[in-house]
Amino acid sequence: MATIRAYTTIEQSRKLAEILPLESADKHWIILDGAILRATTYDYFDLREYNQDKGTFREYIPCWSLAALLSTLPDIHLKKYTYDGITKYYATLIGIRQFNSKHYDNPVDACYEMIIHLHEQNQININF
């Protein structure tokens, strides 16, 4: 059984930081000298810092939980189905701009794809 990820990956987070308002992120990844430490509560707006005493470089990358992703785009509905013991998730956009994402093991991935699709189509309407 696949483990459900709670937040966007580092790669997804970097891409979403270019699209979504940083204030819509509810967590951030902490990276210390290139090593990923953890995702934690988002309270840093200075996204890079250098500790001269320790000689370390710390970077904070905004990341989004599933709830944060869903709250930024109210027209998205997350769907789940199970077939033959395998659960998959996909996001669907209702209204005039109907679109379904691919099917994923993780609901965060389905929402991420939907946001990227809307951005590429210049149809993103952020609710924040």
Description:
By secondary structure, this protein is α+β, with helices and mostly antiparallel strands. The chain has one domain. Helix content is 24%, strand content 34%. The chain has three helices and seven strands, in the order αββββαβββα. It has helices at residues 10-19, 66-72, 107-120; strands at 27-32, 35-41, 48-51, 56-63, 76-83, 86-93, 99-100. It has a four-stranded antiparallel beta sheet, with helices on one face. The chain has a three-stranded antiparallel beta sheet with strand order 5-6-7, with helices on one face. The radius of gyration is 16 Å and the shape is globular. The N and C termini lie far apart (34 Å). The mean pLDDT is 82.
Count of the domains? 1
Query: How much beta, percentage-wise?
Result: 25-35%
Number of strands: 7
Helix content: 10-25%
Q: Looking at the chains present, what oligomeric state does this protein adopt?
A: single chain
- Protein structure class: alpha+beta
Morphology call:
globular
Secondary-structure element series: HEEEEHEEEH
Q: Give the spatial strand order of the biggest sheet.
A: 2-1-4-3
Largest sheet: 4 strands, antiparallel
How big is the Rg?
16 Å
Roughly how many Å apart are the termini?
Answer: 34 Å
Average pLDDT, all residues: 82
Uncertain runs are none
